[in-house]
Amino acid sequence: MAFLFAQFLTGLANAAALFLVASGLSLIFGVTRIVNFAHGSFYMLGAFIGIYLMEILPGAVGFWGAILLTGIAVGLIGAFVEMVVLRPIYRAPELFQLVATFGVILVIQDLALMIWGAEDRLGPRAPGLRGVWRIFGEPVPKYDIILIAITPFILFALWYLITKTRLGVLVRAATQDREMVGALGVNQAWLFTGVFALGSALAGWGGALQLPKGGADLLMDFNIIGAVFVVVVIGGMGSLPGAFIASVLISVLNVFGVTYLPQSTLVLMFVVMAVVLIIRPYGLLGREEVAGEHGQVGAPETPIRPYGPMGQALIAALLLGLALLPLFVDQFMLILTIDMVIFALFAASLHFILGSGGLVSFGHAAFFGGGAYAAALLVFHTDTPMELAFLFAPLAAGLLALGIGWFCIRLTGVYFAMLTLAFSQLVWSLAFQWRAVTRGDDGLVNIWPSEWLSGTETYYYFALILGVGGILFLRHVIHSPFGYALRAGRDSPRQAEATGIDVKRVQFVAFALAGAMAGLAGGIFVFAKGSVFPTELEIAKSFDALIVVFLGGVKTLAGGVVGAGFMTVVEDWLTRLEYWRLLLGLVIIAVVIVMPEGIVGTLRTLWRRIRNTDEETV
Amino acid sequence: MLSVERIHSYYGKAHILNDLSFEVRRGEVVALLGRNGAGKSTTMKSVMQLVRPKQGQVVFQGENLIGQPAFRVAKDGIGYVPEDRRIFTDLTVIENLEVGRQPRRQDAPHWTVEQLFEIFPNLSERRANRGKHMSGGEQQMLTIARTLMGNPSLLLLDEPSEGIAPVIVEQMAATILKLKAEGLTVMISEQNLHFARAVADRAIIIEGGEKKFDGSFKELEAHPEIRDAYLSV
Prior knowledge:
The complex is a heterodimer of chains A (618) and B (233). With 618 residues, chain A is an all-alpha fold. Chain A is built from 25 helices and six strands. In chain A, strand 2 (132-135) and strand 3 form a beta hairpin. In chain A, helix 2 (39-56) packs antiparallel against helix 3 (59-86) and helix 4 runs antiparallel to helix 24. The relative contact order of chain A is 0.12. Chain B has a single domain, classed as Rossmann fold (3-Layer(aba) Sandwich), CATH 3.40.50.300. In chain B, strand 4 (55-60) and strand 5 (63-64) form a beta hairpin. The longest helix of chain B has 16 residues, at 166-181. The radius of gyration of chain B is 17 Å and the shape is globular. Chain A binds chain B through residues 166, 169-170, 172-173, 175-177, 179-189, 299, and chain B through 12, 48, 50, 69-71, 73-75, 80, 82, 86, 88-91, 95-96, 98-102, 146-147, 150.
């Protein structure tokens, strides 16, 4: 009993940092409607800056002073990021902002690597709080008790700020109707910057406060973001008390999980989230998101038409070029092209659900990696012939998408995005922790194609036929009645339902289809590489696809394919450099700000402008 | 005080305001009349810069507002009460007023929460209630009070009588006259000619985004054909 209580206390202590980070994310989301993926990066910055300041400031006063200063420093960094990166794009669609914050993650990762190096740092102990106190005979670290004591004050301070101060009133008003707040004389730009700075400062404080229990390393940003999303989704987006309850719930659960189910700590969190969302789709204390409530109605979509003769000729020429490619290039180029085709199909499947379906999925890697793992597991454990195992890839991924879709499709917007992300993390943690089956991060190796497909050239044609076939199939679906129904549901769900379309079911089927196609890409991938590792299921993989779709252009059909080609080449070139993340991050941010229509969209606009000026001069 | 000069405003490609010009002089109450879709709300939004006119000028107290952000326009002293009210439904009455609060201005009447509660006694009773629990009339009072918290020198009221019980409309008319007596300049948009005549000194009639009439109500009465052509009676 005493042991259980001590465990419970540890969980409560862990909740402090998690709550700080989650409340910051929630606050930023509430006002700016931006899901700040870089929030984990601010947490990481908090840890590194905290260590630095603790080293130069001596004693207990120095320790606590360092924590305080860290939050302020990270807050200022957050304000800078908001002004430079986000301010120009508040009116852009959600996805742009997400991609921009992802660019920020990459930049901060490499800056941290440059400044602090790759080594993990141990956090300094809090002066005067090094030992343990005995509670019912069980040792509990003194610092844990202090954290538990501090947390209610943090909650109270935040609650006071939000409910009792003018800033809080403005924040809540802006959460509901930013334009009206502006028309009443409040400078929204500064309000947003202030809120972003405050949210970032909270993340920074979280990073600094956890130092004596943990430390600082370069993986902290991604490691915490999953947990933070789970907390915010369980608690309800924008609800501070919800974030608090969920932080405690998740932290306590984690501590008990480590003791009793060490194999499933990561999975546990996502299972709890799934359960909560089945019972309460908008989180414990969340409010239903009403579509269009925040008034940011974008320009109407230009209808997508099948290509004219020009476009068809171009595609035919491209395909012919690809078919003849082995005659002209070396093996390395062929392998690179296979990568490109795989990526193009993966991106096209995401583009299908995102562009035509309007469903921003953050967890698409689950289906890519899921398909790859499904085939690999069959080959690895049962020596299934490659042909059969390969067929299993899209099938398993499609089934997985049916399962995940069943939970996710009921939600919309940010909740949908978060939930897909959480499920993909669940799949990832299965692959990572269920070592008996998946061999964890050792991965599954020796997954080669059958004899008749084993040459690079032969496999190239195999990949090309299936990859291009998959992409053409998706295009075909978009131009079929099913595609019309899907797009109708995206543009006006109510109108679509009034005309007799079962919007949710159409989306459900489309989601499964997109999953199956991503699985097909995963199948081609695993036999091309001969191995698969949990990295194929990571958040970063899902983001790669999102970035590619975005780079190519969301509103254009060719977007995914063009973006994938661009990305494969750029990545191949950039990864040879030491600080490629920094460069890639800057490129992404620049594209978001300068070419908000993506590559294809921008080219199209340019083309139209050229043609129009021609007509005018004539 | 306010001079709108030859503005053209658009929603996407739709041309809403066509070469519209008018003036509002200090101390007067002007009624902007016209049918649904005539461009009344767009005119107000074009002054506030919530809709950005593509051509023309909006000059307020000697300063051109074109291209300014809406919050700047509000800070310059123009108070805007939108047609659809847009109160913050999750906030209490007091909190709604707080959002509108701005420092006092030399050339405009100054309002405190208590003074506003005297003008709008219903709000006083409901000060701790959330916006979503209020009736349409109360919400309308709240939006006006909220805007007055900014101590504006010019008040733009977009269809204040719309969707409100007749008794409340009468109260509203009395309130507007009270505001005028305090020295506030007011521009209201209206479809209700009776209500407009009760509160306004002058009428501007627009149709299809163009000005059709600008003069006193006496002149308007002398030309019933104008009324019949551009107002639904």
